[in-house]
Amino acid sequence: PRSGKMADNDHDHDDEVAAEHRERLETVSTSVLVHEGELHKQGQLRHGWKKRWFQISSDTIAYYDKKGGNMKGGILLETVTGCRNASPAESKKPHSFSVDTTTGRNFLMYASSDDERADWMAKISETVEKLTPPEPAPPKKKAAPLVIAYWKIRGLGAPLRMMAHYAGDKSVEFTSYEVFKKDDGSWDRSSWFCDEAKGALKKTNFLINLPYIKNKDSGHVVTQSNACTSYLARRYDLFGNEEQTAANEQLMCQAMDWRNSAVGKMYSTADKEVWEAYFSNEVKNHSEKFEGWLAQRGTKFLVADVPLASDFHTFEMIEQHEICSVEVLGKSYLEGYPRLKQYHDDFTMLPELQSYFASEYAAFPLNNKMASVGGAQLPTQMEIVARANVMRAALREPSDDNEAAAEQPDAAPSE
After folding, report:
1. Pairing relation of β-strands 146-151 and 173-177?
2. 61 forms bridges with which residues in the sheet?
């Protein structure tokens, strides 16, 4: 836009503007021209209509007696509160509109057609919107610290612990309840089944069971595995959009179905033939569903190219079955499921989960001590994690020592 002082001999008081605005209006040459053209404007005092040449710039609306003529006045866009069609009481002219301001004056104008009026109003509104900075986001409320509690095993607690590690949530306190073997061969579960533990929590949530999550600020307690997963998914934004949320919910149920079919075997028998039949039937059925899902979905993880809510329990089920297969059957079951194998490897390599894989929680046994498989009979998880860390290090920086370590056979069973 051109610049220039308002004409000294301008005695058209209808076009005068407040003195404090003059200097700003007279420097419109520093602004970026957005739109220009002819409009009729109503004077402020005599209310007569005059033809003016208007220019919208990045911070002003200036008007002139003619194109290339003297500036008569203008509007600072920072004062504009809105742009609207003029009411019949305000203007009898067709195609008229009002630019409302915080100065106490509304500027009435009219165009040559409704389309031209709409164009001017849109240009003014868009320019004002760009000028106005967005409202600052409210400060993010600090998340309340949590307790995540389960038995001192991986079991149903592992997915929740992994989610907290993946999110980098340092506020979480992990509580583990341990089972002990009595002299008579029975099992002491009183660390959980006592007035101080389950009894106290039952006063807050009558459904209380393991696992549970407790909000340390409010005292609110959530129990049941999928409910706990959903609670953390909302806290850590791990559900995704509406379609992804529905996908996660389905997969969480499928993983729980798999868990329910597995736990009976793990706590009842270590018989090789029984486990061979289990892998040939039930494990095959569940694995093919997840294998087919991954092929159909075409994503790196179950729902997206980053882990979401359903990935943590599904990974744990794959991991547990791989450990059991190597331990009981002496072979990897994942060799028959290339997509699950790649999925398992990708999940294990996630940088956000290295703190978990190196922690004591990844070293917990799969099941409680009375289990036939995955309790005392399996290799310690620390050995598995250590071996996985060696393999990860070899992938990052190959060396003769790392390659040799990565080729070591699976650890022998230990108690």
Report:
1. parallel
2. 56, 75
Q: Give dist(CA 189, CA 197) in Å, integer.
A: 11
Which has the closest alpha carbon to 147: 186, 188, 175?
Answer: 175
Measured CA to CA, the distance from residue 348 to residue 315 in angstroms comes to: 9
> Rounded CA gap, 317 and 338, in Å?
16
Helix-strand-coil split of the chain, %, nearest 5: 45, 15, 40
Q: What angle do CA 96, 111, 107 make, to 5 degrees?
A: 50
Tokens 């597995």 belong to 262
**How much of the chain, in percent, has pLDDT values that exceed 90?**
69
Please calculate the CA angle 175-365-321 and round it to the nearest 5 degrees.
125
Q: Is beta strand 33-42 parallel, antiparallel or unpaired with respect to 71-76?
A: unpaired
Structure tokens at 399: 């060396």
State the Cα angle at 150 between 145 and 155, rounded to 5°.
125
Helical spans, DSSP H, in 77-156: 114-131
Please say whether the beta carbons of 59 and 78 come within 8 A: yes
| Peptide linkage before 211 cis (omega within 30 of 0) | yes
Residue 166 has phi, psi (to 5 degrees) of -60, -40
Contact 277, 271 (CB under 8 A): no
* First-to-final CA distance of the chain: 84
Neighbours of 53 (CB within 10 A): 18
Which secondary structure element, helix H or strand E, spans residue 181, and what is its range? strand 180-181
**In terms of residues, how long is the chain?**
415
User: What is the DSSP track for 309-328?
Assistant: HHHHHHHHHHHHHHHHIIII
Q: Would you tell me how many other CB atoms lie within 10 Å of the CB of residue 319? A: 20
Q: Are 131 and 348 in contact (CB under 8 A)?
A: no
pLDDT tens column, 126-160: 998 887 666 776 776 788 999 999 999 999 999 99
Ranges of the chain whose pLDDT falls below 70: 1-31, 132-134, 137, 140, 376-415
Report yes or no: 121 and 83 within 8 Å, Cβ to Cβ: yes
pLDDT at 47 (0 to 100):
85
Dihedral of CA atoms 311, 312, 316, 319 in degrees, nearest 10, equals: 60
Contact criterion met (CB below 8 Å) for 123 and 61? no
Q: What digits encode the pLDDT tens for the residues 7-34? A: 433 334 444 444 445 555 655 545 688 9
How far apart, in Å, are the Cα atoms of 97 and each of 51, 74, 155?
A: 15, 16, 69
Task: Provide the token pair at 125.
Answer: 């509104």
